[in-house]
Amino acid sequence: MNEIKLTTKASYLWQWGKLLSLTGAAQVLVQGSSLVGGILVIRLLPASEYALYTLANTLLGSMVVLADSGIGAGVMAQGGKVWQNPSQLGAVVATGLKLRLRLAVGSLVLALPLLAYLLLHHGASALMTTLIVLALIPAFFAALSDTLWEVAPKLHQRVKPLQKNQLAVSLGRLVLTALTLFTCPWTFVALLANGFPRLWGNKQLKALSGELLDLKQTPDPAVQKELLGMVKRILPYTLYYCVSGQITIWLLSFLGSTASIARIGALDRLSVVVTVFSTLFTTLISPRFARLSGDRSQLFRHFLRIQLGLLVVAFCTIAGVRMAATPILWVLGPEYTGLEGELTLNMTGNCLNWIAGSTYALYSSRGWAMKPLVSIPLSLLPIVAGTWFLEVGTLLGVITLNICIACVQVCVSITYSCFKIYQTPRQTDPAAF
């Protein structure tokens, strides 16, 4: 009997090791090409232009988060219940696409005027501001549907086609960036080079999803009610996250200099290392966590294992960046030398945010949503305290503030997850991870 258990455990570990190694290798290629493309942007754009590029990308991220408002997590949660039924899964995805498009309009109305103001505030001409705003729109609409078209392949663990799609898009961005910025080193050109490959990739994702779900399905009112309920619970937190998630950029945009914005944008390029782990997590871990049956002991056991893995990866990443800080800054360019301490601290904040975001992905994949009246005050506390005691108009000040905020987010997310797992009843026949 013991031999059978050992054999089963060894087979399980071998399966996961093979899956992580293959997926990780593909992600290294994907994010490696993204990193090279990002360094090209840093090197080829003047510091003033790169500051504008950083502002535009920050607004793009906030627009995408606002247009989602929990829809992606809700589709994953609802899809996890019917993932083996193509018709029902198709209805879930169709409903999510419809709701996300509605929210996209409001996101554009709120974000684009703010972007125009910040660009003008930091020295962009009226013509350049207009071109940047227009160039951001294709990238925004490309980001609206990619995560929803990935739901079915992730639930069915069709990892290899997803990796091929991501690699093709990343290489496309790299090629377009190299071809265009050498001759046209402007922010709006870099944004277009970033958005068009993703539009092509989304068409391929839709074709892949068509093999796993019924594309002809129309939105389901029952699913829409569930998704809207989740959006209502998450929307206040989403609005808060649009500010707190990029608090360093926002504070420097209003209180700091254009040079500081360029520097924090360049340092954040190294967060591509964390993006590798984040993509692995959302591709392999959170979909499987969503598929687990509602057994308390099983959920808690897997949750603890995942948290331990997150901590180990984060510690190793921070240590590696600390040891290689000087050569990393040399690669970024002479305008960013002497920022070894800021680079290490910024990576610490990125890793803590990754842990908080991964924990959020776990509990939201189960359809759990924290009440904004609880989460937002807890999250506002470090922001208010930090802006009072720290010099948030400086690069070091905003990086330190980001670390404080991330620490609170990690504690809140883990505590809430444990609370929801504790409320889950025990079952005698839990599903396998």
From TrEMBL:
InterPro entries: Poly_Biosynth_Transport (IPR050833). Keywords: Cell membrane, Membrane, Transmembrane, Transmembrane helix. The keyword Metal-binding does not apply. The keyword Transmembrane applies. It is a multi-pass membrane protein. It comes from the Bacteria. GO terms for cellular component: plasma membrane. The chain crosses the membrane at residues 20-42, 54-79, 99-120, 127-145, 174-196, 239-264, 270-287, 308-331, 343-363, 372-390, 396-419. It is found in: Cell membrane. This is Polysaccharide biosynthesis protein.
